[in-house]
Amino acid sequence: MLTAPYSGPDRKKRKLGDRRAVELENILKQTFESVILLNLYQRSEISIVVNIFEADGSLPCSIINATTLALMEAGIAMKDMVIACSVGIYKQNIYVDVNQLESTMGSAYIPIAIESSTEEVIYLQLDNRLSVEMLEESIQKAVTGCRQVRKILVNMMKDHMKGVSTSSNNSSTSLSQYSIGATATVATTDDEYRTSGGEGNMDL
Fold it and tell me: What is the pTM of this model?
């Protein structure tokens, strides 16, 4: 995972093994290990490279969504699409797809990833204390946001398959606060040979 020094408001150069980068890498690994059909790639290595050029909040969700598109384009078999969206709570109000400022000024920030078809939550992070009622409502709002993101990603993939540039797709406006590229590759590993498989590269 490569983060440009100018990607965030702090303009900080990230070193190799940066704690935040390692945390995001673990989130990505654990999330997609649950949906990729790993039994089909027993002697293979799947590499996911994420480049972050601009980020203004909801970074885990944006990375997950970009990786979903990259894996699909690379032809890597998954049991379902993974869709992510975040919610923030400010003065007892719940806001969907929050930016950096909104995620820090509120009382709670919750990124969520779900399986597209079943809407089963496969990733959720909560660092604040909430009532059960507020947490349940927040999850419902986040799932509703994931449904909207799913429509955007499906349209982006359809346009990409048609050879239409996704940069001109008006449906990507709700993700305009990010500039993130994800590349997924699969390679067969063996003692005698190593061959490359599918490759996908998608930008948000």
Answer: 0.75
Task: Cite the DSSP H helix spans in 10-130.
Answer: 19-33, 59-74, 100-105
Q: Return the SS3 of 36.
A: strand
In 3D space, the residue among 201, 202, 200, 141 whose CA is nearest the CA of residue 175 turns out to be: 202
Over residues 23-40, the pLDDT tens digits come to 889 999 999 999 999 999
Among left, alpha and beta (phi > 0; psi -120 to 50; other), residue 68 is alpha
- 137/6 Cα distance (integer angstroms): 35
Res 169: pLDDT: 40
For residue range 131-158, list pLDDT tens digits in order.
999 999 999 999 999 999 999 888 888 8
Domains located in the chain, CATH noted: 2-203 (3.30.230.70)
**H-run or E-run covering 34:** none
Please report, for residues 40, 88, 91, 123, 127, the alpha-carbon distance to residue 130 in angstroms, rounded to integers and kept in the order given. 41, 12, 13, 17, 9
Asked if residue 47 lies in contact with residue 199, where contact means CB atoms within 8 angstroms, the answer is no
